[in-house]
Specification:
The complex is a heterodimer of chains A (174) and B (263). With 174 residues, chain A is mainly alpha-helical. Chain A is globular. Chain A is built from nine helices and no strands. Chain B has 263 residues and is an all-alpha fold. In chain B, 75% of the residues lie in helices and 0% in strands. The chains are: A mainly alpha (174), B mainly alpha (263). At the A-B interface, helix 2, helix 3, helix 6 and helix 9 of A face helix 1, helix 3 and helix 4 of B. Chain B: GO terms for molecular function: sigma factor antagonist activity. Chain B: Residues 5-37 form the Putative zinc-finger domain. Chain B: It is a single-pass membrane protein.
Chain lengths: 174, 263
């Protein structure tokens, strides 16, 4: 089972083998949670939304038609987050403030961690999201392009540019 | 490439996600280019910070809630039912019961079916018989109206087919007995009617026939029948026959012999 790709497993889930969703959950739920936590800075909300993402996976399993599983998963995660903030009358910009506040609040944060967090908070929300996905979730440029509705080349260039910018900010504050 | 800066490739170079040739080219360039070396150092520090970043872990609650939801969905779907060995045993026993039940159902429905079938057949048979009788009656009545005497006799003879002839048949026979010009037809009609002497209509017809009948052999037969059923009303026409000059002498003798038993 370990050898099977996400896509093959998801295909079997779509065909009715629901138990295999456990494998996908074990493989990815931490990434989804981590991404949502980085974006929102709220542990409870991130857990609820992660839960929501996998509910949707169960519910819309039959609408999966091959394609990159990770792209699909993170597209659902991004939409869940967007829906949540739209419903609570918050603009995308507010996420920045949220993340910043949480960075201040977390006590067990190391020095290094806080520096990185501060640097990240100075990026635009869109750039920050791209970096989260690229750095923490091990998402390939091809999948990233699919999630963002762009081409792998454009995404690669964009990530490189943001990393350079982030590096400048990071080194400034250290 | 050796003389170009590789700044744009540094993140991927550090990730190790480039192909071997490109990696080698970058390494060769880095050996000669301090600017790019600096860039690599700085980027390495940033990426290291990412790697060292504490990754929050979701609580166990998340997993248990997911599994609950999955079980609920499976139950709702009702397709994938895991079979443990225990339930297998149970299933074996219940499947025997199921087979027994289905056999019982099969037998019962077969029986029911044959009962209904029998009923239906009986009903159909009755209908057919009825239809057949109707046809015979029609045939009989029309034959009796035929111009040929032999056909009329054949029609009258059909009376044997009816257990309980209705009024229309009796009336038709009476018409033959009273009005047919052929002696044989009248005689056959009389023979047919003589079986139903319990009917008032038949008795009345026989008395009428006695008054009208001219054929001696039929007269004798009618007289015998009327005496047999002890019909008192027949006495009057018999007395008339005695007084009638046309009446054959042996008929008169016959009447004289039986009249005392009627009066």
């Amino acid at each position: 089972m370990e050898a099977l790709s996400d896509e093959m497993i998801m295909q079997k889930v779509a065909e009715g083998n629901l138990d295999l969703l456990k494998v996908l959950f074990d493989r990815h739920h931490k990434h989804v949670y981590n991404f949502l936590f980085k974006m929102s800075g709220d542990r409870m909300l991130s857990e609820d939304l992660t839960q929501d993402v996998f509910y949707k996976l169960i519910k819309y399993r039959s609408s999966y038609h091959m394609g990159s599983f990770k792209s699909w998963l993170f597209t659902i995660a991004r939409n869940s987050l967007k829906t949540h903030f739209t419903r609570h009358h918050k603009t995308f910009e507010d996420i920045g403030i949220l993340a910043y506040q949480s960075a201040e609040e977390v006590n067990d944060m190391t020095e290094n961690n806080a520096h990185l967090q501060n640097a990240l908070n100075r990026l635009s929300p869109e750039d920050r999201e791209l970096i989260f996905l690229n750095r923490y979730q091990e998402i390939r440029y091809e999948d990233l392009a699919e999630i963002m509705g762009s081409t792998p080349g454009a995404i690669k260039t964009k990530v490189c540019r943001i990393l350079k910018k982030l590096k400048e900010i990071y080194l400034e504050t250290i | 490439m050796e003389n170009e800066h590789v700044l744009d490739l540094i993140p991927e170079y550090l990730d190790g996600s480039l192909d071997n040739e490109t990696m080698k080219n970058i390494q060769r360039h880095l050996e000669k280019c301090p600017q790019c070396q600096q860039e690599v150092k700085e980027m390495e520090a940033l990426l290291k910070a990412f790697k060292n970043d504490v990754v929050p872990v979701p609580s166990e609650r998340l997993k248990s809630r997911f599994e609950e939801a999955l079980e609920a969905e499976k139950a709702a779907m009702g397709k994938v039912v895991p079979l443990s060995s225990k339930t297998k045993k149970y299933d074996w026993a219940s499947s025997v019961l199921k087979i027994a039940a289905s056999i019982a159902l099969l037998v019962a429905s077969f029986q029911m079916g044959s009962v209904f079938q029998q009923k239906k057949i009986d009903q159909e048979l009755a209908e057919l018989k009825d239809e057949n009788l109707n046809m015979k009656q029609t045939a009989m009545l029309s034959l009796m109206e035929n111009q040929s005497a032999s056909k009329r006799i054949q029609g009258v003879a059909y009376i044997d087919e009816f257990e309980n002839p209705d009024e229309a048949i009796i009336q038709a026979l009476a018409n033959r007995l009273l009005n047919d010009e052929n002696d044989n037809v009248r005689l056959t009609a009389f023979e047919a009617l003589s079986k139903y002497t319990s009917s008032e209509t038949v008795k009345h017809v026989l008395i009428q026939a006695l008054e009208k009948e001219k054929n001696p052999s039929i007269q004798v037969a009618i007289i015998q029948t009327l005496v047999q059923i002890q019909e008192k009303k027949a006495a009057e026409p018999m007395k008339k026959l005695l007084e009638n000059e046309d009446t054959q002498p042996f008929i008169k003798e016959q009447i004289k012999a039986v009249l005392p038993s009627l009066t």
